[in-house]
Request: fold
Amino acid sequence: MKDNFQSVIASDLRSTPPVAPSAKEKTTVEFARFIIKEGVTDAEVIERSQIFEDHFLLKQSGYMKRELLHIKGRAWADIVYWANSEEAEKALLASQKNPACGAYFSMMEQVDPQNPDCGIIHLEIVKSYSVSGDK
Reply:
């Protein structure tokens, strides 16, 4: 059975050559892990997160959706979906001058360059899988 499975996979790979979409076509996921400052409550994080959403993100071209995650303790993360990497980069630059972003970011500890677990990274979705079997 294992040999049969491998031959089916190899056959499928040969019959459908991978086609990489251009950068403008690839959805970009922004993953931003952060630590909130001592004394900031979960309610404050959620409140400022909503202001950030309403007064900044919803006004950005290429913005698709966002998820706010509580990791544990003071560790949180934002996952933001952008139409492509260019839109994600434009928004990142615009965030530096936006008061709603400033209010949201001010409750976060400064990113330590020695700590690779915090900060912002942009990732391009190569392939998505779902329970429904979407391709």
About this structure: The radius of gyration is 19 Å. The longest helix spans residues 2-15.
